[in-house]
Amino acid sequence: MRENVFLRRATPEDASAFLALKKALDVETAFLMLEPGERLTSEEEMRATLERIAAVERDYLAVMECDGELVGYLSAQSGSYRRNRHSAYITTGIRQAFCGQGWGKRLFADLIGWAKQSGITRLELTVMAHNQRAIGLYKRMGFLKEGVKRHSLRVDNQYIDEDYMALLLD
């Protein structure tokens, strides 16, 4: 594990760097939603998003920073209504050069600690069914497969299934 990497909560001042990270991930991996060039978010829109996350106590966004550059993130957006406020949907991405070094586990451990303190009792995500590295991490963190979204995505002209996974914390 690299010594010069650390985790912290994102702030609105990270807008430019966070947008750059997301665009780099769009190019680097086909396991995320957007294709290269498809992300149209402006820096101002990203700043507004980060301001909203900072203002909502039940939302979470942690970033990984290495030598002043953001190299990974994990976010959880809680439900907006009384009936689903206990639940949070997760998205995550880590630059390839930092994968397989335990950073995903550290991000998820931090998220789980935050969720327990915030009254979140259900963490959920979707993952492409062939993304075995991510599925392995999620299983090690206690997530269970709840179902399959068949032909959920179309990547490189092929239909891809997504697995629903969740972790119950109560």
From TrEMBL:
CDD domains: NAT_SF
Gene Ontology molecular function, alphabetical: acyltransferase activity, transferring groups other than amino-acyl groups
Top-level lineage group: Bacteria
Database matches in Gene3D superfamilies: 3.40.630.30
N-acetyltransferase domain mapped to chain residues: 5-170
Pfam families: Acetyltransf_1 (PF00583)
Designated name of the protein: N-acetyltransferase domain-containing protein
Natural source organism: Ornatilinea apprima
